[in-house]
Write a sequence for this structure.
């Protein structure tokens, strides 16, 4: 698959690489999403630039936690009926090395939420962290 990643932290123009890597496969309880749109958030930039001083969590990181696309594979324990579902996802790169800046990503099934037919995939890619933050601001 085609993906963007970094192996060192710093400004995007200095550390981002685009190339080919193996397609990910879902494990138990996970789904694979063919990504149509990838959302970028301030936290993605802060992780890449090591704003928090925590260093590289993995040797190679595909950035971006949020995205949208179509589930094309399901892992053991996930209903096969989820395949073909249009979804938005969150937490793809939260504590994991594989985000949505790629053709495919793998997330826990619960992090892939059905996307209303009234919304575009681009809009769906914006629902993750910003949508959850807005919901919490109003309801918590």
């Amino acid at each position: 698959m085609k993906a963007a990643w970094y192996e060192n932290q710093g400004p995007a123009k200095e550390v981002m690489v685009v190339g080919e890597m193996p397609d990910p496969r879902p494990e138990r309880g996970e789904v694979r999403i063919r990504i149509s749109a990838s959302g970028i958030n301030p936290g993605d930039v802060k992780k890449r630039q090591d704003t928090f001083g925590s260093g590289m969590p993995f040797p190679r990181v595909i950035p971006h936690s949020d995205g949208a696309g179509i589930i094309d594979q399901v892992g053991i324990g996930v209903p096969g009926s989820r395949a073909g579902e249009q979804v938005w996802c969150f937490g793809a790169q939260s504590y994991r090395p594989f985000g949505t800046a790629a053709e495919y990503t793998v997330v826990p099934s619960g992090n892939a939420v059905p996307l209303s037919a009234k919304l575009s995939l681009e809009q769906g890619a914006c629902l993750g962290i910003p949508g959850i933050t807005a919901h919490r601001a109003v309801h918590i």
